[in-house]
Every structure is written in structure tokens, then in C-alpha cells.
């Protein structure tokens, strides 16, 4: 690779040694602002961290202490590359809540579903292969696909998720260009960042297009059990055993254990285990037993209900505040679960350029372009309702609305909103965001 292609600095003495793969890894242009955003006076509607304040910590601590006392030499030892059998059996019951029938043998445990994404991309994708994704899509997945030098192509979506017609057109267009499509990556429940949920019929239509076109479906479902209005819609995997399904305990229990899983057809599962062994030897054994212990000794479904009540109050506070505060011409999604609302500002506004003014006004959000691999999303922002309490959410949305109103005034006076004070990042997702 020649120097002029590299974005790195000459001050790095290894600049000529990095793999081409590292070119797909992007530094966040807004990371500096996020460290500011953590200041207490700022309401952060940016982070997507699960709010685990209501976990029964004493009970969990006692249970883990007893587990170490009685089984320490086993739970702190290396384990199976596929993951521990006891947990895989429990995961079968977790997935049954979303209509999935599965066998523990077809499950591979991963270090969070993020590692599931990595392993799936690793076993399927060569540089230049195309991954299809919703528009917008999860920043961490886009980062993984780009780090394997895939081309991410966003499929147009509407209020019900991926448009089946647009999906077929996109596949046909890419194939006519000689491109190799490896899979469709989709988040059918409470998409991060859009909050959109695909209804059941839409799921079936998307599966049927992919089946007839020979495109694999990768379903990522970390938020499925956090349905705030109705029972969860059955997973896509429940309708088709060829769908590769990614699950996680990060949102239904706690992300720090880093335990997720991939459910895949048998042959794919074999490749996943080989990839897992070369990546980590085995997924974190202590964490797996800790989760298995939690599922055995706690009312984990009751705990999910507690989480849901807490998130529902926050979601409702955000939707009400948006309705009361946002200037005309702004629209937003109304998520039935998960953590996120996706806001679309009037034409001409630029959420990336606006962010420093937001932080000045003591509110932080994630600008839309982070969720696209191709620079779209200038008018969009992701607001998360999972963390601040309802009154802080209200304050945050009021501040956000004030900033938008001021931008609109400037635009109406001068024809453009403020000139950007942040240098524009290269298109693509920024790292370190959930
Ligand atoms: C859609 C989606 N997929 C995957 C992940 C990764 O989750 P984890 O690796 O903690 O399971 C996240 C985290 O926010 C997410 O939003």
C-alpha cells in the first residue's frame, strides 16, 4: 500500500506495517466530545449502555461467591471452544420465548453478540464482498464489516423496516455489477439506532426474497425481550432454520460478562467453533457459569419485567418531551422496545456540525452519519432513553430542541445553518459506540 492511501501519521514508526484491514477501522471524530459529554451538567442522550441499576447485586454476589467456593476449579478453568453445555441448554429456553426451537449443539457461545458478528463475518467474508444492512444500522456491526474490508450496502427501509421490493432491486443491481453478496444483516426488533420493528409479515417477506435470491440472513436480536408495548414478535429464525441468529445477555442481564451466542445451521456452527478457537481458545468460562448461575438462582424473567417498566417510563418521557418541544418539520420514530429514538431534522440541518452547539447547550446525542457506511444521515440523530431518569430526559430533549430551533433560525436568515466547527469525519461508523 502506498503512503498516499494511508490516513495514519508519519509519527507512527509502524505506519508501513499495518495490514490493509486496519484502513477500515475508523477513529471517532466525536470521541473528544463524548468525554465532555460525560460531565455531570450534560444530559447524555448519546450512550446506549443498558441501565442495570435495578439488578439484585447482593443476591448475585452471594450466589457467585458460593459458586466459586464449591466449583472454583471448574469455573475458572479453560473450557469448550463451543461454550459450556449447561449454558447452551439454558439458552434454548431463552430463545423459546421468541418462538425459536433449537438444539444446544447448534449454539456457539461468544464474547457478546459483538464477537458473534466478528466470527460470522470472518467465516463468510473476503475483502470486497458485499454485506447488506438496514438504513441506518448498528455502528458496531458496520465497524466489524469494514474491518474485514467488506462493502456495506444499505437497503432502503420504511417504518416497518427493510423494504422487500427495494431489497430485491438492490440484490439485482449489485449482481448486475458483478458483486458478491454474502449476507443480509438485520436487526428486526427495535433497531439500533432507528427503534423500528419489522412486523411478522415483513419478516416473512424479507426471508422469502433472501431465500429466492440465495442470500443468507443474519438476524441480530439483543433487544427482543425488551418489548415495551406487547409480546415480542417471533424471531425470523423461528420461520427459517437457515437464518443465523445472534443473541446476547447484555441487555437482559448485564453486558460486563460479555456473553452472547450464535445459533446456526450445523455446518456453519462447525466453522464458527473453529473460528472461536482461533480467536479466544474458548469463550469466557467464568462469565458463562456466572450467567448459568444467574438464570438458575434468580427470577430472570421477573427481572426483565423490572427492566421493561424502567425503560418504558423513560421511553414515554422522551416521546412526550419530543412532542412538546421539537420545532415543526422534525419527525421521529416511536419505538415499541429497545433503547433508541431516531430523529429526522428539517432539510438543510446537519447534526454532525450541530453537535458542538449541543454540547455547549449541555446535551449530547449521536449524529446520524455514524450509522451509515456511506455518509448518509446528515439530518438524523440517535437519542437514547435507556440511561437518564425521565426528568433528565425531559431536560435533555428541551435543550436539544432549543439547539435545533437556533440552527433553523440561522438557516432561515443566512440560507445555511452554522458552518461546521468539527472537521467532517471520513464517511463510516465511529468506533466505541453501542
Ligand atoms: C444491535 C446490536 N447488536 C450487537 C450489540 C453488541 O452487544 P453485546 O456484544 O454486548 O452482546 C449491540 C450493543 O449495543 C447492539 O445494539
Automatic annotation (TrEMBL):
Domain Aminotransferase class I/classII large span(s) in chain numbering: 65-385
Essential cofactor(s): pyridoxal 5'-phosphate
InterPro entries per record: Aminotransferase_I/II_large, Class-I_PLP-dep_aminotransf, PyrdxlP-dep_Trfase, PyrdxlP-dep_Trfase_major, PyrdxlP-dep_Trfase_small
Xref: Pfam families: Aminotran_1_2
GO MF annotations in UniProt: transaminase activity
Cross-referenced CDD domains: AAT_like
Domain of life: Bacteria
Keywords: Aminotransferase, Pyridoxal phosphate, Transferase
PANTHER family the record matches: AMINOTRANSFERASE, KYNURENINE_ALPHA-AMINOADIPATE AMINOTRANSFERASE, MITOCHONDRIAL
Protein name: PLP-dependent aminotransferase family protein
Organism: Tessaracoccus lacteus
Lineage of source species: Bacteria, Bacillati, Actinomycetota, Actinomycetes, Propionibacteriales
Amino acid at each position: 500500500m502506498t503512503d498516499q492511501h494511508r490516513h495514519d501519521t508519519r509519527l507512527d514508526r509502524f505506519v508501513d506495517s499495518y495490514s490493509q484491514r486496519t484502513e477500515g477501522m475508523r477513529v471517532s471524530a466525536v470521541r473528544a466530545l463524548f468525554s465532555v459529554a460525560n460531565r455531570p451538567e450534560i444530559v447524555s442522550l448519546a450512550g446506549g449502555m443498558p441501565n442495570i441499576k435495578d439488578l439484585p447485586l447482593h443476591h448475585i454476589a452471594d450466589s457467585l461467591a458460593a459458586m466459586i467456593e464449591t466449583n472454583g476449579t471448574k469455573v475458572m478453568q479453560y473450557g469448550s471452544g463451543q461454550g459450556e453445555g449447561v449454558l447452551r441448554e439454558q439458552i434454548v429456553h431463552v430463545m423459546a420465548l421468541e418462538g425459536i426451537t433449537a438444539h444446544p449443539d447448534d449454539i456457539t457461545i461468544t464474547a457478546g453478540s459483538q464477537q458473534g458478528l466478528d466470527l460470522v463475518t470472518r467465516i463468510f467474508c473476503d475483502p470486497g464482498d458485499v454485506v447488506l444492512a438496514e438504513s441506518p444500522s448498528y455502528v458496531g456491526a458496520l465497524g466489524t464489516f469494514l474491518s474485514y474490508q467488506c462493502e456495506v450496502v444499505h437497503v432502503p427501509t420504511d417504518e416497518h423496516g427493510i423494504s422487500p421490493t427495494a431489497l430485491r432491486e438492490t440484490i439485482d443491481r449489485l449482481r448486475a455489477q458483478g458483486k458478491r453478496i454474502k449476507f443480509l444483516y438485520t436487526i428486526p426488533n427495535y433497531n439500533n439506532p432507528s427503534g423500528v420493528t419489522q412486523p411478522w409479515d415483513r419478516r416473512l417477506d424479507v426471508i422469502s426474497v433472501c431465500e429466492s435470491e440465495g442470500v443468507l440472513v443474519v438476524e441480530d436480536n439483543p433487544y427482543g425481550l425488551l418489548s415495551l408495548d406487547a409480546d415480542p414478535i417471533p424471531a425470523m429464525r423461528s420461520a427459517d432454520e437457515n437464518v443465523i441468529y445472534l443473541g446476547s445477555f447484555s441487555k437482559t442481564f448485564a453486558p460486563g460478562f460479555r456473553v452472547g451466542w450464535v445459533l446456526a445451521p450445523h455446518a456453519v456452527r462447525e466453522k464458527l467453533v473453529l473460528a472461536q478457537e482461533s480467536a479466544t481458545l474458548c469463550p469466557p468460562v467464568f462469565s458463562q457459569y456466572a450467567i448459568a448461575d444467574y438464570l438458575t438462582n434468580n427470577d430472570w424473567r421477573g427481572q426483565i419485567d423490572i427492566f421493561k417498566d424502567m425503560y418504558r417510563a423513560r421511553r414515554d418521557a422522551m416521546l412526550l418531551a419530543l412532542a412538546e418541544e421539537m420545532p415543526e418539520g422534525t419527525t421521529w420514530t416511536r419505538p415499541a422496545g429497545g433503547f433508541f429514538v431516531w430523529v429526522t431534522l428539517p432539510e438543510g440541518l446537519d447534526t454532525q456540525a450541530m453537535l458542538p452547539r449541543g454540547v455547549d447547550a449541555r446535551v449530547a446525542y449521536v449524529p446520524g452519519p455514524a450509522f451509515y457506511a456511506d455518509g448518509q444521515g446528515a439530518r438524523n440523530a440517535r437519542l437514547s432513553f435507556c440511561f437518564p431518569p425521565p426528568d433528565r430526559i425531559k431536560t435533555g430533549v428541551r435543550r436539544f430542541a432549543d439547539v435545533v430551533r437556533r440552527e433553523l433560525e440561522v438557516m432561515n436568515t443566512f440560507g445555511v445553518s452554522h458552518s461546521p466547527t468539527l472537521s467532517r469525519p471520513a464517511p463510516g461508523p465511529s468506533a466505541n459506540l453501542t
